[in-house]
Write a structure and sequence with these properties.
The protein has three helices and ten strands; from the N terminus they run H-E-E-E-E-E-H-E-E-E-E-H-E. The chain has helices at residues 2-34, 101-108, 168-175, and strands at residues 49-54, 59-64, 68-72, 77-82, 85-93, 115-125, 128-137, 140-153, 156-162, 179-180. It starts with a helix and ends with a strand.
């Protein structure tokens, strides 16, 4: 009889533990489903941007993932593309040493070079002096360019540009993330 009573107590205890476990699981499931505690279950997502290091141009920048990228060694040019529209990076040297970005900008973006500058602003991007501008080619005035001309060294410059108005905000974001790494 005592053995039978011990068996009933063990069975009752196990049954009680099982009920508590099941009720706890039901509570946790309900809380998660109804979000009663204000905690959202967010699935991890891939980052929308990536960092790119161009050894050819000696720059590092952040690029949205939807862009494809192509570097041209011979031209010292990097092109990124989204839906057929382009942003181009061109690193070039000059025969003349310039004292600052303004002097070089005035030299190349002039009326005698068939350029009509419609806006211009001096900006400093991570320690690099740049001029952000919009301009038109006087031979093709319907086409507007937006670009960043950056002074890397007295004879070395980086030009980042697009003629696609749809990419202007991406150009701003990308250009403003640039770091020079000689």
């Amino acid at each position: 009889m005592a053995k039978n009573k011990k068996l009933k107590n063990k069975t009752s205890t196990l049954f009680l533990i099982l009920v508590i476990v099941l009720l706890s699981l039901a509570f946790i499931y309900t809380v998660n489903q109804l979000n009663l505690l204000g905690v959202k279950n967010v699935a991890p997502t891939a980052s929308a941007v990536r960092e790119y290091h161009s050894e050819l141009l000696n720059i590092i920048f952040i690029i949205p993932n939807e862009y494809s990228l192509k570097e041209e060694n011979v031209l010292r040019e990097l092109t990124i593309e989204k839906k057929g529209e382009l942003i181009k990076f061109k690193k070039y040297t000059t025969n003349r040493a310039y004292k600052d970005i303004e002097e070089h900008f005035e030299d190349i973006y002039s009326a005698e070079n068939h350029v009509l500058v419609t806006s211009k602003e001096h900006v400093n991007i991570n320690g690099i002096d740049c001029v952000e501008s919009q301009w038109k080619d006087s031979n093709n005035p319907e086409l507007t360019y937006k670009n960043y001309l950056c002074f890397l060294e007295p004879t070395i410059f980086l030009n980042i540009s697009t003629n696609s108005p749809n990419l202007y905000s991406d150009l701003d974001q990308i250009a403003r993330s640039i770091r020079y790494s000689p």
